[in-house]
Amino acid sequence: MNIQLYIVLAVTAFMMIMFVWHKVPFGVTTMTCCAILVITGVMDIQSAFSGFSNKIIIMLAPMMALSAVLTKTNLVFKIHNVMMRLKSGHGILLVMALFSITILFSQFLPSTAIIAIMVVFLTTLGDSGEITPNRMILPLLGVAEAWKFRLPIGSGATMFAGMNALYEGIVPDVNYQLTMFDPFIFSILPIIVLTLFCLFGWRLMPSDSKVDQSAVKEEVKKSALTHKQETIVYVVFAAAMLVMILNKWTGNLMYLAPAVAVLILIYTGIITVPEAVRGMTIDMIWMIAGVLTVADALGKSGAGELIGNVLLRVLGENPGSFTVMLLFSVVTIVMTNFLSNAATQAILIPIAASLSLVGGWDPRGIVLIAGISNMFAIGFPSGSGEAAVAFAAGGYNPVKVLKFTLPYVILAILSCAISANLLYPIYGR
Q1: Disulfide: which of 40, 63, 343, 378 matches 19 by Cβ 3.0-4.6 Å?
Q2: How far apart are the C-alpha atoms of 265 and 273, rounded to whole Å?
Q3: Can you count the helices (H) and strands (E) in the chain?
Q4: For the stretch 47-56, what's the b/e string if a residue is b when 16 or more beta carbons lie within 10 angstroms of its beta carbon?
Q5: pLDDT tens, 257-275?
């Protein structure tokens, strides 16, 4: 075993520990890993920081800025007006309206902002009657997590690229890379199961407390854009999405479309250069650029194969496909309810890829489990920013809401494992 393999294993362990500890931003951790790989001679500077020029980063970074522009439009304010008209309503139609709004927001806005916005909307319902804000916040979080960036539009159109970035250096076979529609197809079963559960299971929520609006910021405001500027935003966004969806014909233009869209918005004065830069340099971008390098080092050094061999011995020879899917589903969803979504994904996807490489498996099913199930963090406030906001606003005791959260988590585990096994069994069809 050569020294470089030891170094890569140590760097990978350091990255995972720091992700779990989360005392510094994830991007700082991965950039530290890149620096260590250069200092120790495992990689040269150009290779270690090549993640920033990767086509995946070129697509993801401007997409973050482009999605942020939507929050400057009148969309949120218009939805607020709809809620005001519905505030005297009752029954299943009102619940469906709340869920529909949450689903729409979940394709474009960060979940933390969605929950903050929805809490403001919910306070218009009052605390009397069967449908109260306190009984709806956690179910709305469940719906938001089930639908979060699932449709292949907006950030959802780039989810496949982010997951590919975390394992393509370990499993280089292009036949095992995800496509734009794979995350959505995989998510169909969990979406249906979890949405239906929330639609009827909200009655399991306690109704003996009031919503604390001090836990959220006021998010409902009018657009700062003119009608002409809003129209430009919608047209540019739709055009970028069309180029990405039609990637079979547009080819590599898919990776450039978000950047061109941002440039148009800068030239038309809708966003400023500093605003675009802030959107494109968020911590997630730094993290993925760094993980690309670590994953590449795992593949080239043989460290990924070593990790896979160890895990394969633990699982035993020729484990059942559904057994593997269920195991990864349980581990992912349990982890993400205590740790950051991003940390869970970044830790488990390389492990899934390493195991698949050694086992000769199709990695797509377990990679999708690790990449999508990491969002089902509704059991504890420590699971995600949006969970923290929801628990704070609702004043929930995690034990007292177990009647709702535990069935949700169990259904999420089973539906993800079944979906992955049906669509991408590890031994192929």
Answers
A1: 343
A2: 10
A3: 21, 0
A4: bbbbbbebeb
A5: 889 999 999 999 999 999 8
